[in-house]
Amino acid sequence: MHVVVLGAGVIGLATAWCLSRDGHRVTLVERNQGVALETSYANGGQLSYSYVAPLASPSVLPRLPPWLLSADAPLRFRPEADLQQWRFCLAFLLACTQKQADLTTRQLLALSFYSRALTRELVERESLDFAYARSGKLVVHSDATTHASACRLLDYQASLGCEQRALDADACVALEPALAHMRPLLAGGIHTPSEDAGDCYLFCVGMERLLRAAGATFLLGETVQRLRAEGGRVVAAETAQGAVEGDAYVLATGNRSVPLAREVGIRLPMYPLKGYSLTVPIADDAGAPRVSVTDYAQKVVYARLGESLRVAGMAEIAGHSADPDPKRIALLARQAASRFPGAGDYEGAHAWCGLRPATPKGPPVLGATPYPNLMLNVGHGALGFTLAMGSAQVVADLVAARTPVIPLDGFTLEPSR
Q1: β-sheet with 233-239: strand ranges across
Q2: pLDDT of 20-75, one tens digit each?
Q3: Most buried in the list 18, 42, 225, 390, measured by CB within 10 Å?
Q4: Does the pTM exceed 0.85?
Q5: What is the spatial distance between Cα 405 and Cα 287, in angstroms, rounded to a whole number?
Q6: Phi then psi dihedrals of residue 34, to 5 deg
């Protein structure tokens, strides 16, 4: 079968790889002149398999007013005359129940653990050079109340398959000596040794190399303008360069998937969450963490990627522009410098921002549409790198009419209302 994959970020590339291994002829269509140049380019770098709880939860509700009123808050909202934005926000608020959050967490953990197994299998089998490290993850708390709350969740997390342990402040510094500067602020931390880190862009470049060697075709610099459907099937992806025809199609164009799907009568429950990152060349090896660190209070993640430190955070519900806000970049640099001051030159770091394609409840949308030859692989939010291989294999199984390993409850397209 000839399968056309629309989008060559980490989701599209992983999907193409799984399809190629099934023996399909694969064509990838990407609007940029290279792979992974948008949301996949400089994300947080953490393959965070045990930390997939959705942003929508009861705990976020009391924080929303102060967050939305503060220019320095990790979550910022800029209202627009955009029905898609308001639909997303309303659905997000409705999803902030304990029942929904627990259900979503269980669903996402199943997909993330499956993705971890597939990613590690790929790394062991193929020669991919992407600063991969099985470094573990340490979530540090500067507030005793939030640390105590995280400790109370350990048994529940363990029942879902997570391997974690609580650490006091001294144990955090013993595990990661680069935290010594933070010692007076630390209340404790939660260590998860099973988490990984890697450079998503380099992973994607490696996947492109593997796919080209396997015979996949790349149509780079070609923007899909619309999907053409006839007789209840998608028959072409229209670009300025002409129609791309195939037997089946996978929509994996991130936020661009929303207008493309709308053209064929499908409403995707997605909205972009803008996030920021800094890539800091490490100046002092001892000053940069080797364990991936998440600062719970500031909602900032730190991942060592070879000779660089990736710093990432923030979420903005603020439209469709990927233009960075210099004030937010400066804030992220100040936050990083306060935590790991000796790691490198934060003001001279490479700054980036991207639009994470998010759903209100949290899980991505995978699989079938009203068109039997059109599949979805969209809406991964901040977990695209983490969930890429698992989501790709689910979609490849569905294309091949196989039953996926994990249940699809919570991941399929909901009927439009």
Answers
A1: 224-230, 233-239, 242-244
A2: 999 999 999 999 999 999 999 999 999 999 999 999 999 889 988 888 778 789 99
A3: 390
A4: yes
A5: 42
A6: -150, 170
- Quick one: tokens of 155? 């048994």
d(CA 398, CA 405): 11
Token pair recorded at residue 266: 């499908």
Q: Which of 296, 299, 109, 116 is nearest to 190 (CA)?
A: 296
Conformational region of residue 306, where left means phi above 0, alpha means psi within -120 to 50, and beta covers everything else:
left
Burial 35-73 (b: 16+ CB within 10 A, else e): bbbbbbbbbbbbbbbbbbbbbbbeebeeeeeebeeeeeb
| Helices 384-399 and 200-213, packing angle to 10 deg | 30
Residue 6 DSSP SS3? strand
Residue 99 is given by DSSP the state H
Cα angle 362, 364, 368 (rounded to 5 degrees) comes to 140
Kind and range of the H or E element at 217?
Answer: strand 217-220
- The three-point CA angle 409-357-72 to 5° equals 120
The single-letter code of the amino acid at 218 is F
